[in-house]
Design a protein that fits this description.
Layout lengths: L3 H8 L12 E3 L3 H8 L27 E3 L4 H7 L6 E3 L14 H4 L1 E3 L1
Length: 110
């Protein structure tokens, strides 16, 4: 049986997420997922349809393994791009205050 208290808690879920909720960087290997679950291989991507209750900021594809906590200077010094990984593209970077750590502010799911 549903009570007024239950309805009030559902009403409070409408609207933007509270400030305590962190942005998440979700990375998926689509080529692997499609080959495993559909038993097919693809060379290009025409569209993506996301079916969930979420706010999507940006979406991009890459052949590199992206490390969002890695800066361009660190990547250049480590030669990370040569090893198939690299930093998040500048246009897609999440803001980090000077002296702060990316991983302290955001979540990363790979």
């Amino acid at each position: 049986m549903l009570t007024n208290k239950h309805f009030l808690s559902v009403i409070n879920l409408v609207g933007p997420a509270p400030a305590s909720v962190r942005w998440i960087c979700l990375m998926m290997d689509l080529q692997y997922l499609l080959s495993m679950y559909l038993n097919r291989r693809y060379s290009h991507l025409k569209s993506i349809k996301l079916c969930a209750s979420m706010l999507l900021k940006n979406l991009f594809t890459s052949d590199l393994l992206i490390d969002p906590g890695l800066t361009f200077i660190e990547a250049k010094q480590a030669g990370a791009v040569m090893q198939g990984s690299g930093p998040m593209p500048r246009e897609m970077c999440f803001p980090v205050p000077k002296g702060g750590s990316w991983h302290d502010l955001y979540d990363y799911i790979r």
